[in-house]
Structures are given as C-alpha cells and as structure tokens.
Specification:
Elements: H1 40-52, E1 57-61, E2 64-68, E3 74-77, H2 81-94, E4 97-101, E5 106-109, E6 125-137, E7 148-150, E8 155-164, E9 175-177, E10 182-191, E11 194-197, E12 201-203, E13 208-212, E14 215-217, E15 220-224, E16 228-230, E17 234-238, E18 241-243, E19 246-247, E20 259-261, E21 265-269, E22 272-274, E23 277-278, E24 285-287, E25 290-295, E26 298-300, E27 303-304, E28 319-322, E29 328-333, E30 336-338, E31 341-342, E32 350-353, E33 357-361, E34 364-366, E35 369-373, E36 377-379, E37 384-388, E38 391-393, E39 396-399, E40 404-406, E41 409-413, E42 416-418
Biased composition (Polar residues): 1-12
InterPro entries: Pectin_lyas_fold, Pectin_lyase_fold/virulence
Region (Disordered): 1-30
Length: 437
C-alpha cells in the first residue's frame, strides 16, 4: 500500500491539504483522487487469521516442534467404544475437552472399561455433543455395568444423546453422579436402564444435577427411584419427562417410581411425571427428606401398589411425602395431579405423613383414586397441609372420605373441595376448613 510522502501545497491540487491520520502505525491507502480506501479484503483476512489461531498450529524448525494449544480442546470421536473411552481418558488427563460424537452412531458396549463402568469415570469438565448418537450396553453383554460415572470434581455436560440399557449391581443404571460430581444434561434420552437405586440416574449425597429437556423413560430400580434417585444431592429438573419407570418389588416394597428423594433438594419445573409405578409408596414421587418444590408440572397416571401388604403407610399414588429420613417441606405450585392411584393404600393423589409440611398452591387434584381412604389428599398424624387457591375434586376412595382425610392440621385459603365420592372430608379425626359434605 503506497501513501503520500511529500507535503501537500496549494500548487499540488492532486494531493489532500492534510494527510489522513495514521492508525496503529499503518497509513491508509488513498484512491487516485485522494479518497481513503477501506481495505475490506485485508480486514476480512485479519478476522480469518484470528479465527484460525483458535486451532492447534504446529511449527517445525529443524527437529524442534512448537505447538500452540487451543484454550478449549475439541475432539471428534469416531464410531467405536474404544475411541470414546480413549477420548474421555485423554480429556481427564488434559483438564477437560469437548467431544463430538459420530452422528447417529451406536456406541455398543459389550464389557466394562473398569469395575461396573462402561466408560472411564469423568474427573474433569467434559462436554459431549451427541449428534443423535446412542451409548448403550449391548443386550448380549454378559457382565453388569452402567454407562457413565461422574466422580468427585468431574463435570459432565451432555446433549443430543441416548443413554440406554445399563444394569450395574449397584446404583445408577444410566448415570451415577458421585459426591462432588456435576451433571448438566440437556436434551438426553435415558431409557431402559436398571439398578438397585436410581434406574436412570443416581445422585449421591453432595452431588449436583441440572437436567433439562430430557426424557427419562422405562427405567427400573430394585428398591427406589426408578427414574431418578436422590438420597442427598441437589436436583434441578426442567421441561422434562419422567415416564413409565418402576421402583421396588412385591417382596421388599420400594418407593418413587419416577423420582425418589431421601434428603438434599429437588426443584422440578414444567415437567411431566406420568405412568410410573412403585411397589409400595410414591408412584410418581417418593419424598422422605429435604425441601422439594414442584411447579407448573403434571403428575398423572402413576400407581402405588402398596405391597407387601400389611406394611405401614402405603399409598401416595401421585406423591408420597413425609419427614421419614430427614426434615422436609413440599411445595406444589400450579400443578395438575390427576389419574393417580393408591391401589392398596391411602392418598390417591398425595399422602402426607410423619409430621410432613405440605403447601398446595393454585393446583388441582382431580380423578385420583385410593383403595382405602382419600382419593385426593391424605394428611397424617401431626402433619400439616396448607391449601391455597387449589381445587380437590372428583377423587374417589374405597372408604370415606374420598376428597381429604385429615389426622393433622389443614388450613384452607380459597380452595374448593367438592364432588369427591363417597364424601368430601368426613369422617376425619380433625376438621377440614371450608369442606362441605
């Protein structure tokens, strides 16, 4: 680029009276008329150069190679389980990575990498872009293993991925999140996994999981938490589905067909919890400790079978809640609870026990059934239920009342309890304010 070098004078009309200001040590080029030329091609090439610097560049001088390492590594993973295991191992060793899986690939595991884990334990920040791939245990595999284990300090972010068929003898059939581990799932399908607890996902005490736009379907737990089991972690579940999961057996009972929480915290928003089954209590949700908030969700068509028969406190087709393991509070906001059943127990929609604290706000319990009492809400001894601008209607039970049974304390603010056969609230040990039979 040439630029003027002499001083412009009035006798030299072909040059400007003043030179353009020099920026960054480079003089701008002028057109033949003296106008400033904007070097668009040069600017574009600088942008391209800046983009290219993100990639790894190898410069060889003699026998010395200098490698410029990118700030965040990115690795394409070929369609084989060996390549995926190698990629996770390298990511752990290098402090993290983003792994792009082969589009539509089936990563079909026939054996565990270590112990009961198909893949190496995640111990660093790893992002998996699934591209519609499936990571699964081969149905012909002979040994038992889960698909993912997130260890202390590990952070797994994953999306666009199916996790299928895990079956360890321990907990967490699809994903186990250990204490100090973090799961961030967005757009996953977690299906057909089996474990003792947490058929789909197990959150150990001290773990954290944020699960969004994810389907957790058709998983099985031998004891608790067919879809998700949370004995003391922190769960945020948004815009997701917990469907057709199963917990427990007739011999040992079990709780939380969809979700089980023994302690820790749970925040569930805009989620469908439907078609889940528990052998004993809490067909949709079994909540035994820690705060739980459910908002703008649907809890529908879940079943608590109440077996083995003769055990105390069965029921809660939609939700069983009570301070069984630790102090708890349950807050339900703007949620529909419908079509749930406690086939051999109390509280088709909700059973609140063991001095539990329940707040039902702007929510509806409708068309739930109980084999014994309270198709809608069963509020046990010393438990408290606050009904705020909610509706409990068209619920039914084998023994009256069909709407609300109260052996503790119920408060009612502008809530309707109507049309529940055989009766709305009587007989109950304690009155239910605002209930007309």
């Amino acid at each position: 680029m040439d630029s003027p070098t002499g001083s412009a004078t009035q006798s030299d009309p072909g040059r400007p009276l003043h030179r353009p200001r020099v920026l960054g040590g480079h003089r701008p080029a002028l057109s033949p008329s003296g106008a400033l030329v904007r070097h668009l091609r040069i600017r574009a090439s600088r942008r391209a150069l800046a983009t290219r610097t993100v990639l790894s560049i190898a410069i060889t001088v003699g026998v010395t190679t200098v490698v410029a390492t990118p700030a965040h590594a990115q690795t394409f993973v070929g369609c084989s389980t060996a390549e995926l295991n190698t990629a996770i191992t390298n990511a752990n060793a290098n402090g993290g990575d983003t792994l792009f899986l082969s589009p539509g690939c089936d990563y079909d595991y026939t054996a565990a990498f270590s112990g009961e884990d198909a893949t190496p334990t995640v111990t660093s920040p790893i992002t998996i872009i699934g591209n519609g791939a499936t990571i699964q245990r081969d149905p012909a595999a002979t040994n038992a293993f889960r698909l993912f284990d997130i260890g202390n300090g590990g952070k797994l972010a994953a999306g666009g991925l199916t996790i299928k068929g895990g079956n360890p003898t321990g907990d967490g059939g699809g994903i186990l999140v250990e204490s100090g581990g973090t799961l961030n799932a967005n757009g996953l399908s977690i299906s057909g996994n089996t474990a003792n607890r947490g058929g789909g996902v197990e959150l150990n005490s001290g773990s954290t999981a944020t699960i969004r736009a994810t389907s957790i379907d058709g998983n099985t737990a031998g004891l608790a938490g067919g879809g998700i089991d949370n004995p003391g972690g922190s769960l945020t579940l948004n815009l997701s589905k917990l469907t057709n999961n199963t917990a427990g057996t007739p011999a040992v009972g079990g709780g939380g067909g969809g979700y089980d929480q023994d302690d820790g915290t749970g925040v569930i928003t805009a989620t469908i919890i439907s078609g889940n089954t528990s052998a004993f209590a809490g067909g949709g949700i079994d909540h035994d400790g820690g705060p739980l908030t459910v908002s703008a969700s649907t809890i529908a068509n879940n079943r608590a079978l109440g077996v083995p028969t003769g055990s105390n406190h069965p029921g809660g087709g939609g939700i069983w809640t009570g301070a069984f393991n630790a102090s708890e509070t349950t807050t339900i906001n703007g949620t529909l609870i419908t079509g749930n059943s406690a086939t051999s127990g109390d509280g088709g929609g909700i059973r609140n026990e063991f001095s539990g604290g329940l707040s039902l706000n702007a929510s509806t319990l409708i068309n739930n059934t109980a084999g014994d009492q309270a198709g809608g809400l069963y509020n046990g001894v010393s438990s408290t239920a606050h009904l705020n601008m909610s509706t409990i209607t068209k619920n039914s039970s084998g023994t009256a009342p069909g709407g609300v049974y109260n052996a503790g304390t119920v408060t009612n603010t502008l809530s309707a309890i109507i049309a529940n056969p055989p009766t709305n609230c009587t007989p109950s040990p304690n009155p239910v304010p605002g209930c007309i039979n």
